[in-house]
Amino acid sequence: EIYVPSQQFGGSDKSASGHRYDTIPIANGMITSGMSCQLIHYVPAEHDKFFEVVKGFDALVVRCNPGQIDAAGGNQVKFDNAMRSLQKKGISVWPSPDVMTNMGAKDALCKIANLEIGLPDTLAYYTVDEFAAGFKKTMAFQPRVMKQNRGSSGEGIWIIHLKNGNYCSKFGERSCTDDEKITMMEACDNHAEEHTVAEFIEFCVNGRTPKAGKWDTIGTGKYLEGGKAAGGQLVDQRFCPRIVEGELRMNMVGD
Q1: Which end of the chain offers a freer environment for a tag, N or C, measured as fewer CB atoms within 10 Å?
Q2: Cβ 69 vs Cβ 75: under 8 Å
């Protein structure tokens, strides 16, 4: 696990214990099954010591949410490379860095956009220009869910509506203007904000600047920072109102 000192409880994915909500049940399940299981926090300043200690284990279950290692002052690439070194020594790592990269990237949604289970107005943005143009077009069509690529705790995931509800009937019929107002809710804590389209774009690209206005989120924006190679991206998908009925997640555990 990773504890982020600057965030309450060590991160929005954690309870008052400082652990992720399901970490202790997972560990107790292993212990009940007759295995030995210890909970260890990765401290970036003790990187070498941490990886020397974990060499003594048969396997590692990694509970570090993407984005939190960097937020705690560490380096995700350095961490991932060290995990790959353990794999080469025969130590199992679940999930491996490569699985996280290939299966955890939110732009996978865009690859199914034209299938029956997808929506054609699902887009991924890697540059400022394509984001500004694409978001103004999709926002004018239907309420949106905007997702940054880093992390899975809900920070940087926004449900967005046009305040005046002036949606067009067909995708691409019109684009929003910079001064149109949008109402937003962030998935990590369900707090609400109201901004202009231009302020939202500025926050996503450059973070907290005067042009972005005042933000209440714990996040810092800059979702495209570093470009595609560094995981900088935004996924733009239509908001599906039936989400309030719940969701079904499926994980493939075999061939």
Answers
A1: C
A2: yes
- Helix locations, the chain, DSSP H: 23-32, 47-53, 68-71, 76-88, 97-104, 108-111, 128-139, 197-206
* Chain centre to alpha carbon of residue 111: 18
Q: What is the pLDDT of residues 108-159, one digit of tens each?
A: 788 888 899 889 999 999 999 999 999 999 999 999 999 987 655 668 899 9
Contact 74, 42 (CB under 8 A): yes
In 3D space, the residue among 114, 107, 127, 129 whose CA is nearest the CA of residue 236 turns out to be 107
For residues 231 and 105, give the distance between their C-alpha atoms in angstroms, rounded to a whole number: 8
Asked whether the beta carbons of 221 and 207 are under 8 A apart, the reply is yes
Please say whether the beta carbons of 227 and 126 come within 8 A: yes
pTM of the model: 0.68
